Amino acid sequence: MNKLAVFDFDSTLMDGETIEFFADAIGIKQQVAEITRLAMEGKLDFFESLTQRAALLKGIKESKIIEISHKLPYMNGAAEIISILKAKGYTVICFSGGFRTATSYAKDILGYDAEFANVLHAKDGVLTGKVGGEMMFSNSKGEMLKRLQCILKVEKENTIAVGDGANDLSMFRHAGVKIAFCAKEIVKKNADIIIEEKNLLKIPEKLGWK
After folding, report:
1. Domains in the chain with CATH codes
2. What is the pLDDT at residue 1?
3. Which pTM value belongs to this model?
4. Lower CB count within 10 Å: N or C terminus of the chain?
5. Active-site residue 108, yes or no?
């Protein structure tokens, strides 16, 4: 019996929003954070919010983005919960509406099996303000989850999804266990399990695992 656990990255496996760390470096964190908030609450289309925020980063050196991506603070219990899930036979995947500079670096540190995210376009070592990738739309996580379930031959009832923002709702629709982690109200309303503490090791406890 194949099993799958899918985690959001920003504010789930990582303590914060990757793009806000980038924005902070050029003094526009509040402006970017407000767009993020509206998107995560489901009040702004995710694609529109992503492209707006990426455009604000135009001109930052790509090397700075990589440097920040490699210093992000991971959520309490992130590596441990992934280890626990893998020991129980789960394939663990990270879906992020954020960026591969962060998720690909975190893969070996946290131990998940694969990651799907977006890429900030750069030319001559400088961000152009453009963005592309696998997680551009509000339904991207759900669509990717369905594909993975087909490839890995995993049933919905053997799938766990963990997230905090409105763009995580699409993967909730295809998961047997939906976990809202320090989440927005719209996410909590659609969850089976709600965790309010910044500690991913609350997941086994809530699932009743010894």
Report:
1. 3-207 (3.40.50.1000)
2. 86
3. 0.95
4. C
5. no
